[in-house]
Design a protein that fits this description.
heterodimer, A: 198 residues, 7 helices, elongated, B: 108 residues, Arc Repressor Mutant, subunit A, three-stranded antiparallel sheet, 5 helices, globular
Chain lengths: 198, 108
């Protein structure tokens, strides 16, 4: 396809680049609409009647924002819950001492701080305060990374034997994957924020 | 009615237009235009993000259909939540419109 509709769709792709899956969906749907309209009024008028790609992209970003905020908060809550479970699992199975050493403090303190940050992010998400949600979730991700790191080091210090080390590495990998998922959600949220600010 | 005035009621208009049917975006826009006697000539680009928002809110469901030899289109239908929401919005609108009628009617 070439002509005004193709150029319009390419521009729409460009401005919707902040969410590739949304961009694919929108392109197919709008192409169909523009072709229908073009049969009545021609390609140039079909494109003109549809509106500026930047305005369409902004409207899509606004429409999808509550869902994106909710997904980011769910990812953070999931990560917090799994971290808590795995921390307890390592402590119980490896029979780690619950002393007041700095590693234990970072482990527990980091997790508690992260859970508090996730709670704050959730409250801000219900008010659609995107900048504050991002800030609290970044704090949460940092606190969780600190907690996971301290927990893993603590576990290695108290562990002996291959099975114990396998448990530590396995659980740490799960936590790292979840931190990656959260960071990906945050990166997408950042792209949404940039589109809304544009 | 201007597009600006309609904006606050766009969700209800979309839900009511789809009703019990399964319609694609172009058909929805045409139906709104026809049912309103041409009064609601919405900027076409505003409809699709609104449909997407209603789908994310669980009020609409969508699927791709491609008739034989025809163009592939995404069609929208109301979910159970969407039907309930439409009933509530209709009741809300009727109450609001009655109030406005009373206020405006009192001046004439």
């Amino acid at each position: 396809m070439s002509g005004p509709i193709a150029a319009y769709l390419d521009e729409l792709d460009h401005v919707l680049a902040f969410d590739p899956s949304l961009s694919r969906r929108v392109r197919d749907e709008i192409e169909s609409h523009l072709c229908d309209t073009a049969e009545q009024v021609g390609e140039a008028d079909a494109v003109r009647r549809f509106g500026r790609p930047a305005d369409i992209a902004r409207a899509y970003a606004e429409a999808a924002l509550p869902d994106r905020l909710r997904r980011s908060c769910v990812a953070a809550a999931l990560l917090g819950g799994v971290t808590l479970l795995l921390m307890r699992l390592r402590t119980v199975i490896l029979d780690l001492p619950g002393g007041g050493d700095p590693l234990t403090w970072f482990d527990r303190g980091g997790l508690l701080a992260a859970l508090a940050c996730i709670g704050a992010a959730w409250c801000m998400a219900s008010r659609r305060r995107i900048a504050l949600v991002r800030r609290w979730l970044h704090f949460a991700a940092g606190s969780l990374a600190l907690s996971v790191g301290a927990s893993v080091v603590r576990a290695f210090q108290g562990a002996s034997g291959d099975s114990a080390q396998a448990l530590i590495v396995g659980t740490a990998l799960v936590e790292l994957v979840l931190i990656g998922v959260l960071m990906a959600q945050l990166a997408r949220l950042d792209r949404y924020a940039r589109r809304l600010a544009a | 009615m201007s597009a600006e005035m309609l904006k606050g009621h766009l969700d209800a208009v979309l839900l009511a237009t789809i009703g019990d049917d399964a319609l694609h975006g172009y058909a929805i826009i045409e139906a709104i235009r026809a049912r309103s006697g041409g009064h609601f000539d919405l900027p076409e680009g505003t409809i699709y993000p609104a449909l997407h928002r209603l789908e994310l809110a669980g009020l609409l469901a969508s699927r791709w259909v491609q008739p034989d030899g025809g163009r592939k289109r995404r069609v929208y239908s109301l979910t159970d939540s969407g039907r309930r929401s439409l009933v509530e919005r209709r009741a809300g609108w009727q109450s609001f419109a009655s109030g406005i009628d009373l206020v405006l009617g009192a001046r004439t």
